[in-house]
Amino acid sequence: MADNKTVLFVDLVQNTNQKSDNFGRWYGRAVRTQTLSTRALARHIADHNSVFGREVIEGVLVKFSECIPELVAQGIGVKLDGLGIFYPTVQNKKNGAETPADFNTATDIVGVHLRFQPEGTEMDNLTCKAFMEKTQLRTRNVVTITKTTVDGKVKRSQSYVPVDQWVAPQEP
After folding, report:
1. Which residue, 2, 12, 59, 67, is the most exposed by fewest CB within 10 angstroms?
2. Could you give phi then psi for residue 43, rounded to 5 degrees?
3. Whose CA is closest to 13, among 138, 132, 139?
4. Which residues fall within 8 angstroms of residue 136, CB to CB, at 6 or more apart?
5. Residue in 39, 26, 34, 41 with CA at minimum distance from that of residue 9
């Protein structure tokens, strides 16, 4: 039986933060090969045998990208059936206010975020566990990060080595 899962490649990256309890440990990082523009997404949707052309789809997507932030900024969550919900949250300063009378939105709130909660219904489940079951994970590269100082500025560079060249073959 053929496996119809979509492949998501993962690169291995080492924690180089010396202050971290996990310094030197290795972690997977999802590989994002590209980011589609609105026009490219519209073209992709149109190529899925849509009755609408790219221009119409792109127009809807442009309006969509204008309206979602506007509504969420008003405290209105927006649910896209089969995908999930966009909603607002606020980020408070670290220690908060001691009493409600001490709270000041101008100083105690340090950020406003546009969040997304994936659909979790049985029919359209995109939650973490369900999404992982629909995805085939494959380790691709080991990423090494090198820091050099040029003209007083720290520059980071990354090199990629295919994991099969990095890791010696293991006995079964």
Report:
1. 2
2. -65, -40
3. 139
4. 3, 5, 6, 7, 8
5. 34
How many angstroms separate the CA atoms of 88 and 114, rounded? 5
Residues in a beta bridge with 112? 90
- Tokens coding 171: 């006995």
> What sign for the dihedral angle of Cα 70, 76, 79, 84?
positive
Strand order in the sheet with 78-80: 78-80, 84-92, 109-118
Q: What is this structure's pTM? A: 0.71
Q: Are 114 and 88 in contact (CB under 8 A)?
A: yes
Q: What is the pLDDT of residues 89-147, one digit of tens each?
A: 999 999 889 989 999 999 999 999 999 999 888 777 888 888 888 888 889 999 988 88
Please report, as a single letter, which amino acid is at residue 150.
V
